Amino acid sequence: MEVKADDQSKRSPSTNSNVQSQNRNHNHTLTPEQEEHYSELFDQLDVDGDGRIDAKDLKEGLIRMGVPQVPGHAQKFMKKSDQNEDGHVDFAEFAICLENMRKN
Ligand SMILES: [Ca+2]
Ligand SMILES: [Ca+2]
What is the pTM of this model? Predict the structure, then answer.
């Protein structure tokens, strides 16, 4: 009678090792605050909400955020951020790029 799939996901407590393994695909040193900040930014830019930013999302997202449009800027950002060159910036790529921008 129980909904097993749902039950299972709720039952497993999110342990630290679990969280760490989720983050292993980018070797970042983000604090939880930074990660939250980036995640908010990412959500704002991912206009269609599919979990990745493409050039169209970026353009529209920047307009929505009130960022002045600089011709070629979105493309440059995409090129810089899209490390595996699949035409989309996922959150890992986004976070890495913001980190690099912050350091430089
Ligand atoms: Ca998107
Ligand atoms: Ca990519």
Answer: 0.69
